[in-house]
Amino acid sequence: MTVDLSELARTLAGRRLLVIGDVVLDTYVRCAADGLAREAPVPVLRAERTVHHCGGAANLAANAAALGAEVEIVTACGADEAGDRLVELLREAGVGTEGVLRVPGGTTPVKRRHTVRGQLLMRVDTGDGPVAPPLDQDRWTALLAGRMASADAVVISEYGGGLLSGPLVAALAALRPVGPETLVADARDIAALGNVRPTAVTPSREEAARLLPVPDDGKGGDLQEPRRLAERVLHLSGARIAVLTLGADGAVAVERDRPAVRTYSRRLQIRSTVGAGDTFAAALALALACGADTAPALELASAAAEAVVARPETAVCTADDLAARLGATGKVIASGGLAAWQRAHDRPYRRLVFTNGCYDILHAGHVSNLSRAKELGDLLVVGVNSDDSVRRLKGPGRPLTPLDERMRILAALSCVDAVVPFRGDSPVDLLEALRPDVYVKGSDYTPETLPEWSLVTRLGGRVHLLDNVEDRSTTRLIHRIRALSGPGVPTSDEGSP
User: Fold this and answer.
1) Are 216 and 344 within one domain?
2) Do 238 and 98 have their domain in common?
3) From CA 153, how far away is CA 140, in angstroms rounded?
């Protein structure tokens, strides 16, 4: 069904999240440059201020709490000053810390970054190795059983710190049937969690490439193609959903027996990528726990991650930050604003892709087609039928969703660059104004049944037909809804979108 991402973001509040993983204290030493040293050609830094942030699984927990969730963390850190500071930061963030195990003799990992005017110069890591409490499977089970049973979602955040030992993994696997349906693994070694049966895994492209063997041709093969790599991650992990984060290129998700979904980063100034993966995993887990499908959950998680990379140091995305980012896309173009949009997006070297439809109930087939359309160029413009146009095409009772809502929901998709309405039954006027390089429609069309085909060709563009996603139709969805609602509601035999 159609999902309003802003409404989905509001439902995150109050969800109970259990975070299990390796914690780090992120320390930033803000410095001023004071010339070069006499003894060597290196800069002299004068430390002006030192600030501390939650890092690793602690940052993930802090982000979930900032989004409004009720969060508890199970982790281990040293019984040292850094551990004291980290526990204090977690409590200040609103994270429950009763599950934090303090290990005598262990040292809490600290990543100390030195910056000048926000520019990172170097990072110094301290901590003498993994902090792993000596617990067997039974003791881990006793610690986790009640917490997992009462959680709406669990996130495993593994940074190679040693917490995710054999006994802990065995306990997680044994408790999986009594825990929540949603379990997200943001782990370096996703293969080790196969018996835990995660709902989703979220490695970065680089982490996935390290995990998977290079194909026999020795050229890297599909490691360079995100969707195929995500499919291999899905097979390796045993998860239902494999999400590959692509940094500035967005993210791609594949799911068993469902179309792949891709998000694209909006144009923004990146100030720091530290901890963005934690933010992404926290938001994804909460969205899935709310019952969201993969596509809206991925879009929401990507928007949350974008909020933190626009800030310096290790940051969190609050509920207000997420609402602002989802609500301020600037992509909806009024009927008379197309010329101004074209001037602002002058494209001598960028390929413009155009598609159109009713999008009355946005479903997985729509999202998959829009994502694939984006891959054919640089800018994707979506034309949307007006309410009167939908009624003429689909019959009485349509649209179910008014034009302004349909446009706002489409604009929230990161693969979409602009959304523009049209009143006619055909987008001919938009095609003549935009002169797209590629016009995308479904594979059920032919040159004879698509009136716009000859126009696009005459304007110098080409028509690309996408294979339709099987069993994904707005009309079929409406029939199912009305069948559940009872008789007496008018239906239409027209197809989708």
Assistant:
1) no
2) yes
3) 18
Query: Is 491 within a domain?
Result: no
pLDDT tens for 424-461 read 999 999 999 999 999 999 888 999 899 999 999 999 99
Please tell me the distance from the alpha carbon of residue 435 to that of residue 162, in angstroms, as a whole number: 57
Active site includes 186?
no
Spot the catalytic one: 22, 152, 278, 387: 278
Is 457 inside any structural domain? yes
**Which residues, 6 or more positions from 419, have their beta carbon under 8 angstroms from its beta carbon?**
331, 332, 333, 381, 382, 384, 407, 410, 411
| Close Cβ partners of 172 (under 8 Å, ≥ 6 residues apart) | 20, 140, 144, 156, 193, 196
Residue 493 lies in a domain: no
For residue 465, list its beta bridge partners. 441
Q: Which residue among 272, 305, 327 closes a domain?
A: 327
Enter the pTM of the model.
0.80
Tell me the CA distances in angstroms from 37 to 40, 42, 121, one per residue in order. Answer: 6, 6, 15
Total count of domains within the chain: 2
Condensed to tens digits (0 to 9), the pLDDT of residues 200-229 reads: 999 998 888 888 865 544 444 444 588 889
* CA 297 – CA 411 distance, rounded (Å): 15
Query: Which range marks the domain in which residue 238 is found?
Result: 5-327
Q: Which residue in 318, 283, 68 sits closest to 155, CA to CA?
A: 283
| Residue in 430, 408, 415, 413 with CA at minimum distance from that of residue 356 | 430
23: left (phi over 0), alpha (psi -120 to 50) or beta: beta
Beta bridge partners of 47: 31
* Co-location of 343 and 315 in the same domain: no
